[in-house]
Amino acid sequence: MSAPEGPFVIGVDSSTQSAKALVVDAATGQVVARGQAPHTVTPGPGRESDPEEWWQALEDALAQCGRAAQQASAVSVGGQQHGLVTLDGGGRPVRPAMLWNDVRSAPQSDRLIGQLGGPAVWAERFGSVPAAAFTVTKWAWLCENEPQSAAATAAVRLPHDYLTGRLTGEATTDRGDASGTGWWASSTGGYDEEMLELIGLAPQLLPRVLTPGEAAGTVRPGLPLPTGALVAAGTGDNMAAALGLGLRPGQPVLSLGTSGTVYAVSTRRPTDPTGTVAGFADARGDWLPLACTLNCTLAVDRVAALLSLHREAVEGGGEAVLLPFLDGERTPNLPYASGLLSGLRHDTTAGQVLQAAYDGAVFALLRALDEVLDGQGAGADGGADDSAPLLLIGGGAKGTAWRETVRRLSGRPVQVPRAEELVALGAAAQAAGLLLEEDPATVARRWGTAEGPAYDAVPRDEATVTRVADTLGGADTLLRQR
Ligand SMILES: Nc1ncnc2c1ncn2[C@@H]1O[C@H](COP(=O)(O)OP(=O)(O)O)[C@@H](O)[C@H]1O
Ligand SMILES: O=C(CO)[C@@H](O)[C@H](O)COP(=O)(O)O
């Protein structure tokens, strides 16, 4: 490995389970130091985390980077999307943040969709039909269930805004993460005052939406980073990964992490009235049609643990179907669902049940991918590109069982980038772009972040796809019961 040329930049991924920090050579993309520290999510009916824990995990991750972090000229934070962070007048959390995978606000989601005139109106105005993940439903839940917390709130932030704000002292966000709130309208590119009035949220509680390429500020004194270093806007984790891959329109991505996501950059504004595809903005000026599942790596790992199997101990054959909706589900939109196992026979093996869990998780993502690419103008010419390899990223992309399940159920060629932390790398590319006055996606392409082993297409396993689809359709009433 050649000696780093510098300057150094830092990219952060504050995701659901941990904070990861990379110190990167802006010239070459070489990762010169890295750190990672976990934070906790509450179990039980809701999913919450203490924002102060995110900050401590970030400090820990930076400390692990050692001296290299002290040489950074710019930093940027990518973070889990949608979470509702409520701060008091002193900037301290009023209560723990409600996370993207907290489905308690499903009734508020239904109500808000109706209040505005239905899914098509939402899709046209906001780009998305707000599932329980969207921040707007969480604020409505808070007002109804904890009015004292809502009344004590002097500022509302998303996870990445909160961390960026602690670095700079400024109240900022970006269009990518703002597009997952449900109060930022993709049709106008700004906050929707009528929506804010409807949910009783004063606009002055919200951060300023930076334009792509604009700086959030500089690092304040007394922090574990060089004072005065540039701080880029940051963005949601999926938007950061899109930057980190240097994605071109139409290139499909499948991310296997706490959440499963499928997306592509699009030059056309998405407006899917079915609600499967969220019409997010990306961090540059284009769009990021995306579908997200709540049950991905954690759900499959949980099934493996229940079966006392290693996560790779899958077996083929059998007719078991496992819909791994342990946390309720968002895609398909079944917030009250739980996991469902069917097709068991005397000769079904534990390994086949585990394979069925992978199949169920991957099926949901691939069916949604068709909708992300169809009709949403993801391709350069507005159409899907079936021959483009599916870029497989996230922690699950390291697993053979995940990769082979994706190949078998998609029938597509798959490419697994060698670079592992694409959210943090995307944030680093954004920081480098700010520092070097370059487009971050161009920076990432120069770094070669998407390069990695390519796997040919295999014939699609139609029998399994049909069996999972039929089970899902047949169990619809059961899966919708509260
Ligand atoms: N070698 C591996 N094989 C399969 N899965 C893995 C491997 N290493 C990590 N994982 C999975 O990756 C997940 C974390 O992925 P990551 O993308 O870091 O999540 P997030 O960003 O959502 O916190 C874990 O839940 C774990 O199941
Ligand atoms: O809600 C979404 C996307 O809409 C999730 O993708 C979150 O952004 C959480 O991401 P991870 O922690 O799984 O990376």
From TrEMBL:
EC class name: transferase
Which EC number(s) are documented for this chain? 2.7.1.17
Q: Which UniProt keywords apply?
A: ATP-binding, Carbohydrate metabolism, Kinase, Nucleotide-binding, Transferase, Xylose metabolism
Domain Carbohydrate kinase FGGY N-terminal: start-end pairs:
9-244
Q: Does the keyword Translocase apply?
A: no
Output the Gene3D superfamilies linked to this UniProt entry: 3.30.420.40
PROSITE patterns per the UniProt record, alphabetical: FGGY_KINASES_2 (PS00445)
Extract the InterPro entries matched here.
ATPase_NBD, Carb_kinase_FGGY, Carb_kinase_FGGY_CS, FGGY_C, FGGY_Carb_Kinase, FGGY_N, Xylulokinase
The source's domain of life comes to Bacteria
Biological-process GO terms, alphabetical: D-xylose metabolic process; xylulose metabolic process
User: Pfam families this protein is in?
Assistant: FGGY_C, FGGY_N
What's a Gene Ontology MF term here?
ATP binding
Where's the Carbohydrate kinase FGGY C-terminal domain? 255-432
Reactions listed under catalytic activity: D-xylulose + ATP = D-xylulose 5-phosphate + ADP + H(+)
UniProt family annotation: Belongs to the FGGY kinase family.
PANTHER family the record matches: SUGAR KINASE, XYLULOSE KINASE
- Entry-linked NCBIfam families: XylB (TIGR01312)
Q: What is this protein called?
A: Xylulose kinase
